Amino acid sequence: MNVQPEKMQPEAFEARLRQIGAERYHDKHPFHDMLHSGRCTIDQVRAWVINRYYYQSRIPMKDAAFISRVTDPALRREWRSRIEDHDGRAPGEGGIARWLRLAEGVGLDPEYVASERGILPATRFAVDAYVHFVREQPMLPAMASSLTELFAPEIHKTRIAGLLKHYDFASPDTIAYFEHRLSEAPKDVAFGLAWVMDHARTPADQDAAAAALIFKTDVLWAQLDALYSAYVAPGRIPPGGWQPHEGLLA
């Protein structure tokens, strides 16, 4: 006789999701330890800014793909604020524009960064996989994959403090992206977590949501693995990857 698994109670299910972050979130990656403690060279910081831009630029595309599948107007209204957070409502506004100010602050030409030249192949594959996941998976795992935002505020606080302490380029203007996320991310994740908790109605649903969150942590971790391999140790930049003399401000 097969014994069917029981649905986890809400408190236990939320604890399961949070444990994924405790074990797998990319704040534990050695590249972030280097970055936040001031041990990155300026070229390593630039490589991070360039490659992370690709991720930042795809977030509103991911969210637009999600909205395109939503039949509930209320959910669409709630979700579209995420696109505005990154794209802004006018030129020069939003998270992507703030990221390009960070790029300029570290000595990169923002037009070069926005061109997406120099993106590491593994970064491109990982980020594209995330967009495809949200576009193609059922709504519950597509939504659950965004719950890495549960863990983001702490890494932003650590990053703000570390950058301001250790790097000359850091100022309220150049690191404004992270300050804004401290207020934007909590409202997003509060809605997303409540939605996932409400719609994960079976043990299989809960497993799918947890697997989606694990997938997203893998996407984030893979990007840092690519950076570490190319620009830290052993320092072999793959074909097409950014070279330190490229894309600098005159």
What is the tally of beta strands?
0
Provide the residue-averaged pLDDT. 96
CATH superfamily (homologous) name: Heme oxygenase-like
The CATH topology annotation reads as Heme Oxygenase, Chain A
- Work out the helicity level: 55-70%
Architecture (CATH level 2) name: Up-down Bundle
**Termini separation:** 73 Å
Provide the succession of SSEs.
HHHHHHHHHHH
Secondary structure elements and pairings:
Blueprint lengths: L9 H15 L5 H7 L5 H26 L5 H15 L6 H12 L4 H6 L5 H16 L2 H6 L7 H15 L9 H24 L3 H29 L19
Helix pairs in contact: 1-11, 3-4, 3-5, 3-7, 3-11, 4-5, 5-10, 7-11, 9-10
Task: Walk me through the structure.
- It is a single chain.
- With 250 residues, the protein is an all-alpha fold.
- The chain has a single domain, classed as Heme Oxygenase, Chain A (Up-down Bundle).
- 68% of the residues lie in helices and 0% in strands.
- It is built from eleven helices and no strands.
- It has helices spanning 10-24, 30-36, 42-67, 73-87, 94-105, 110-115, 121-136, 139-144, 152-166, 176-199, 203-231.
- Helix 3 (42-67) runs antiparallel to helix 4 (73-87) and helix 4 runs parallel beside helix 5 (94-105).
- The longest helix is centred in the C-terminal third of the chain and has 29 residues, at 203-231.
- 36% of the residues are buried.
